[in-house]
Amino acid sequence: MKIRTLNDLQDIIDAEMAWRKRELSAIRSNVMEARNFAKDTAIRAGIALLYAHWEGAIKNIATYYLEYVAMLGLPYGQLKPNFLAITLKNELKTFEASNKTTIHTTIVTDIISSRDIKSKIPVEGIIKTNSNLNSEIFMEIMATIGLDCTDYESSYKLIDTILLEKRNKIAHGERIETIGVDEERYFEIHEKVFSLIQLFANQVANAAILESYLG
Hints:
Number of strands: 0
Strand content: under 5%
Largest sheet: none
Structural class: mainly alpha
Radius of gyration: 20 Å
Shape: elongated
């Protein structure tokens, strides 16, 4: 689906959240209804899938926003500088790696002259989670799309030392006893992580409405 309008962006975000909410509700029900050993299995599966939804939702919704801004085709001078940085990423790498003043001057000239040029923001492969969406990578994603991450700072411990740590232990085949998650704790983690996903979806939708991409 091409994201050409605000309605297109909202529709695709809504669709993204709808199927994730359905599956997360099913996962929660599985944990609640399971008995004995099956409950331990449901909790282990729940943590792994909860992380998968955290990573997948952030990556996809951030990409949708980037695609929407790219589709607008505004001059770089009207956009926040992060969008030009995305476009000039390879040139910036060359700038850092080279000791040649001629190359530095050429790149700086390109940056200055880009202000009035219609933007051609790349989208494919820009939002990367490295299969390990911790708080540091999340902050980089937010910087990439030019959004503030202040509202998430209090949840970084949850992301790094609870969700990711426990997901990694599960991925390495550790028993439920070593993970330290019972049914009550799972529900607590579940609700907090879903709230973060919903917060991000709302923030992206609002950023598009408020034209937060403008410089």
